[in-house]
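Incident review: delayed structure delivery

Summary: a single-chain prediction request sat in the queue longer than the usual turnaround. Root cause was a stuck worker, restarted by the on-call engineer. No data loss occurred. The affected request and its eventual output are reproduced below so the record is complete for anyone auditing the incident later.

Affected input:
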Amino acid sequence: MIVRVPGSVRDVEAGRTAPADEGNGRLVAWLCLVGAVSLVSFVGRFTGGRPPKDAVYRWDTAVGEAVTFAVILGVALVIAGGLSWRETFALRRPRSWKIALRIMLGVLIGVLVLSRVLDPVLHAGREQGLAPSGWDSARAVQFAANFAVLALVGPCIEELTFRGLGFTLLSRYGRWIAILGTGIAFGLWHGLVYALPVLTAFGIGLAYLRDRSNSIYPGMVLHVAFNALALAYAVSV
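Output delivered after worker restart:
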């Protein structure tokens, strides 16, 4: 019988301990994934590759984002190959939904306040270019498809990648290394400059929530709600 403990990367099989560099190899692979996506995002940002203003009303946006997230999930699952998915991705009930909900509310309010304070200076809300400038009822189906990908699928896969796999791999070096490390990586992942402080703060908040709840599910709920509210607000103004 093989028992895998992702945090310490120890395999117990007939009393033998697996080489410690197995965990380091997985961590390097995860860092390469994050680094590759971050690099592509920043290159696109600085070469003027902003999405069109009607990006969330286009089929190609939904398809492109869905394919991208599918590839990211596939790579994350390959990196976690041989480990318990339940433990590696924290696919378990939180210690307490009551405590988790309090932290979720605190993180949401904190990020909204920080965004409000910084937006007059950085105008981060305009940088990514995915937020629509109003409602287009003629393309409601396309918007629904993009909403599903950007507000439902994307956040869940990002939580699995960062607060799941990344947090587990970094936690062997300490909980705050995992919290701050995945938070900073999450901020860089989006390839945005002006929005980097808010995204990093959000990532740290999600990682803190993951640490306190010992589960990925509260972070998924908060991340989905945040993206959904952002898109809903964008089409309502």
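Verification: The radius of gyration is 19 Å.
Action items: add queue-age alerting; document worker restart procedure.
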